[in-house]
Design brief:
Length: 107
């Protein structure tokens, strides 16, 4: 699943350059960098691809494992959401509101 997340105004300076790679390593461990994109995996996610589309947009693509426990899925979701909080500058609630507004705008 591919998702685009807005980055809070003025927050880009916290994730530009090598800063994003360090944040990914803190949350998910091993990370590979190819062609400006970062690749990793964690818990119930077999593959996570992360890159900055521009200064305002983070793009994350995930592929889940075929089998995983509910506990593993819960732990993965918590860590993934904390990662998004740090990288985007928005909380999960704020991201949901932004998504809701963008869907309404798109109609």
């Amino acid at each position: 699943m591919v998702r685009e997340y807005p980055i809070k105004r003025g927050h880009y300076k916290h994730i530009e350059g090598e800063k994003l790679k360090k944040i990914i390593q803190e949350f998910f461990g091993h990370v590979e960098e190819r062609d400006g994109k970062y690749y990793t995996s964690y818990g119930s996610l077999e593959k996570i691809e992360i890159y900055l589309k521009d200064k305002k947009t983070l793009v994350v693509s995930t592929i889940p494992k075929k089998e995983y426990s509910p506990e593993e899925a819960y732990k993965t979701l918590k860590r993934y959401n904390r990662f998004l909080d740090v990288v985007t500058g928005y909380t999960a609630k704020e991201r949901a509101e932004k998504l809701k507004k963008s869907v309404i705008k798109g109609k």
